[in-house]
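Form 7-S
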Amino acid sequence: QVQLVESGGGLVQAGGSLKLSCVASGITFSFYAAGWYRQGPGKQREMVAGISRDGRTNYADSAKGRFTISRDNAINTVYLQTNSLKPEDPATYHCNVGTTSDTYSPEDYWGPGTQVTLSS
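Output:
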């Protein structure tokens, strides 16, 4: 059974940083692209960053220059380093594993999500 488990979310000050992790099991992780999506209250799910099988990356305009996606196939893990967090960033961040790094399909796998919240 395929399982994706995210971690690393939490409460952080505006301008701060968090590193999110997603560990995959039940698949040959290196055969798949991976990505991070987020959904805030009252908003639709949106792509934040994606990474291909060979490590090529793509980002939403809002994430460019602030977020970095990476992967370590040896431990079946994809990361999202989030820096300079802004008021528009709080959301539930979900890990995605599938055939492309810039969108999702019905056959993709999803994790349950990890929450990023800004203090105020």
